[in-house]
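user: Please review this fold.
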Amino acid sequence: MSKIILITGASTGIGLETAIQLAEQGHKVFASMRNIEKSTLLKQTAEKRGVKLNIMQLDVLDDQSIANCISEIIKSNERIDVLINNAGAGFIRTMEQASMDEIKQVMDVNFYGPIRCSKAVLPFMRKQKSGHIINISSVGGLVGQPVNEIYCAAKFALEGLTESLATYLEPYFGIHISLIEPGGVITEFGNNLTNYFNSTGGILNDDYKPLMENYMGYRASFTDEVKEKVFQKPAQIAEIIIKCMNDPHPKVRYMSSEGVATFTKVKTSLDPDGEILKTQVRKGVLNK
């Protein structure tokens, strides 16, 4: 059955590929982005692959922008079946080096953005007693990593939010909520991350210099050739998102690869998909 789907951050990478694949499967896809002028690649890809998309302006930092987008979707379709919170941004810098404005921005995009969008669709999903919110997290939402602590903190927060909502949204309102946890993916995400780091001073001449040199050397080891062998492609992550969406009994979490499962095994081996803990909490707190 065709679904009405809204995806954020669809101008490139995982968002773009997910929007295209969903449209190829016959769903009505509203592919949104903050700057509509950056929709050229999405339009070209859609035309090349013979699919139709509804391209929308939506800034996850702007409540009114979100309300306008969802209002238009509801007005023309009278429902919304799936929200894919894909928009996000990375950040390289130690906590001490980072400004509070930078820290707030990372939290705003990666955590408050999904909250804003989810709060906006939930009234409609509750009314229709169905829906699925899919949050694009990261391996960084499960394992804290050096020099990425602010980004990891935002994704950890998203994981905690999702796990908590999963305990009651489905039994009380028929709404599923899930996490997708990719590792390394070949997109512009990494390049944007490095470009921002370099544009804001790069490796500073302070006590953290040896740490930053070590870490940036590690990042430099991921050449294009290495990425082709080790990293996943956006199309592969899109397939996992669609698998999650089509699952008759969606899990809390979907890791994107065996590599992610191995990297997070110490923390997740007893409950890799999050279902055991969700059920345990439901029974203990809600008697459900």
About this structure: The chain has a mean pLDDT of 95. The radius of gyration is 19 Å. The first helix runs from residue 13 to 24. The longest strand covers residues 175-181.
